[in-house]
Fold this protein.
Amino acid sequence: MTFEAPLAMWLLLALPMLAGLYVLLQRRRSRAAVRYASLGLIRAAMGPRARYRRHIPPLLFLLAFGALIVAMARPSAVITLPSEQRTIILAMDVSLSMRATDVQPSRLAAAREAAKAFVQEQPSDVRIGVVAFAGSASIVQKPTSERKELVEAIDRLQLQLHTAIGSGIIVSLAALFPEDAAELEAANTSARGWREGTRSAAIDKPKAAPKKEFKAVPPGSNHSGAIILLTDGRRTTGPDTLDAAKLAADRGIKVYTVGFGNSQGTTADVDGMSIYMRFDEEALKAIAQATGAEYFHAGSGADLRKVYETLNARYVLEKKETEITALLCAFAAALMIAAAGLSVLWFGRVRSAPQG
């Protein structure tokens, strides 16, 4: 727990002073009670429960006062709240290695089923988009809340050559930020030498409009969207993965990465061809770390479904640092109401301190 105004906590020193004042008033009350003929008769008439419960309302008032002092310090704590992430992009590897049958019935089929289950379990107000990447990347389905369209888009995924993980991230960002699509596409194609300036430009070509100023935000600070990237291979073409991750980090977008298959490497027969398959676990971890997200490994279809279930929980509930001043004020008010209610119920009046 952190405090924005920690100096206010010095007021807590008043609590033991108030407790000492209460004890002093109690002793004065006891001395005054000696005037009665028999103090024992009074105690017997009150009963043990009555003697103890008269201290409860003052104790509740003291706790309420302490809670208000802590609230004045404006505390913040890491608590679990409903997630604000309302647009999720599923970036799925569709390279040829996804046809391997070491995961039954195939890697692609298992990934499809896990992704469709994830889509169906999301709250209705969450928009989901689908991006497929191999040698290049494309938006298969723009973000939508229509689950039927998303399932159909996942079923349409087709396998291609090569693996461009960086392109998968950049095109996913374009799906989240369509207003920046042109700039992101320039970053995507720069790895292949097509960025303006790498070749001669016609002298009569009009100058491009000046780019709007872009201001980077802290990694992971954008709570309106996220990317879940699944791959079973290593980057073989396209933009550098860490450069692409930086584009996501600068926009505050978290990129959760899922390594599917074997990180140590395995050989599988795909359509009569022997293909060596190994995903780059270190690169996937670096992407997740750079964007403030997490890395997951799934070695089977069942593992992948569990990963998606875990990620589903991340979006429904999310831990983040939140100021809890209002919560403490409400707690203090509840204590005061309880103290006043018990005092009226037991003594017929509000009793915050014994009367002398």
In short: The longest strand covers residues 75-82. The chain is about 45% helix and 20% strand.
